[in-house]
Design goal:
The chain is an alpha+beta fold and about 375 residues long. Helices cover about 40% and strands about 15% of the residues.
């Protein structure tokens, strides 16, 4: 982060506060102030914890005082080391507790986020104004234009000024989604994100966006206890892990990784696979997604449900699932080595689309590469 660039952003944000002052001053209980903790103005920033607003508010009949609004951008309004001593300050304590439970040793020092990481951490809010009530109520009072105005400024702060390794947004619908949407619209960039709505062991939804080396995560608001799967999702995103393990096996699995079930569009991914210039299989006539893998094998790619790849003999007859076809054992050994499920009597092997990764381009590349490898192996010495 450049101190000079940050100063320019602060001036721009303060000008916006002045521009909407008359409107905000008429709103009861709404106050100004967003930055909570900022350890430095120059140098690399590792993490940004981004809330909706500071939840402070102002008294009835009290004028909105913006005298110290600019100073707060530089000094913040607290310190995580002191927040730990306040059990009622759950927003911070819940996330530290969750990281401790899943052994996030890369940023933890015993029970707490280490001083080394805190020196590279900023805690702030997406809204330049705050309210003692619920976030949705503040949005209602400010109206969409001011909400979006704040989100645009915060997007510029994150992506153009701070440029941290990771941003953790406390709320998907109220922070993550409007932050991404406004920056995408205002800067006309191709900004996509993934939604993970079925993390194992919890019903909570999380989101992830990768842009210019910055990972932005959306998690449930941390005023509530943070589920173990959500904490592990943050940790694995920080470490760059793509694959996890099931909650039921956490005690015996290395590092206690948690499995994620992504909500990528199966049909879209499969269309990308079959339209790839490196996917060279011929489609079988009068079929949906069946392709000739060799003289005696066909590949089926399903678009329904979670999606999967499946291989069997072209002359397969469903009435004779146990019939011994040519090279069955050899073919299955090839597929087993590549992680396919070969325990079904109706297929030589199957593999779920989600087993190839979590990003569209990653899934497409791996499927095309693996199918080409299989073609070469099954046709070898036949």
């Amino acid at each position: 982060m450049s101190g000079e660039e940050y100063k320019k952003w602060v001036d721009k944000a303060y000008q916006y506060i002045e521009d909407v002052y008359d409107r905000v001053n008429k709103l009861e209980y709404v106050n100004v102030g967003s930055t909570q903790y900022i350890p430095k103005l120059e140098g690399d920033i590792e993490l940004v914890f981004l809330g909706h607003d500071a939840h402070e508010g102002r008294g009835v009949g009290v004028e909105l005082d913006i005298t110290n609004a600019k100073e707060r951008f530089y000094k913040g309004n607290g310190n995580p080391r002191y927040w730990r001593e306040c059990p009622e300050w759950k927003i911070w304590n819940n996330i530290e507790s969750a990281f401790r439970r899943i052994g996030f040793t890369e940023i933890m020092d015993n029970d707490y986020i280490s001083d080394e990481i805190l020196n590279k951490t900023i805690v702030t809010n997406a809204m330049l104004f705050n309210y003692s009530g619920k976030a949705k109520e503040l949005n209602y009072h400010l109206k969409p234009d001011i909400v979006n105005g704040c989100m645009k400024l915060t997007g510029e702060l994150i992506f153009d000024v701070i440029k941290p390794k990771m941003v953790i947004c406390s709320s998907c619908p109220l922070v993550f989604e409007p932050l991404i949407a406004n920056y995408k619209k205002d800067h006309n960039v191709d900004l996509r994100y993934e939604a993970f709505d079925r993390l194992e062991g919890t019903r909570k939804k999380v989101m992830r966006c990768e842009y210019n080396g910055i990972t932005v995560l959306g998690i449930p608001h941390t005023s509530y206890p943070v589920p173990q799967a959500v904490a592990a999702f943050v940790r694995d995103s920080y470490l760059g892990k793509d694959i996890g393990y099931s909650m039921s096996n956490m005690a015996t699995m290395p590092n206690g990784f948690v499995s994620y079930k992504t909500s990528f569009n199966v049909k879209y991914v499969i269309d990308l696979v079959t339209s790839s210039q490196d996917f060279k299989l011929d489609k079988i006539e009068n079929s949906t997604e069946r392709y000739s893998l060799s003289d005696n094998l066909l590949l089926t790619i399903t678009k329904t449900g979670n999606g999967y790849l499946a291989i069997r003999h072209k002359n397969y007859d469903v009435q004779y699932p146990n019939l011994k076809y040519d090279f069955t054992e050899r073919y299955r050994n090839i597929l087993k080595e590549k992680g396919w499920n070969c325990d079904t009597p109706f297929w030589l092997g199957t593999k779920l689309i989600k087993d190839y990764g979590r990003k569209d381009d990653e899934i497409v590349t791996k499927i095309v590469s693996e199918v080409n490898d299989i073609v070469e192996l099954v046709n070898k010495d036949n």
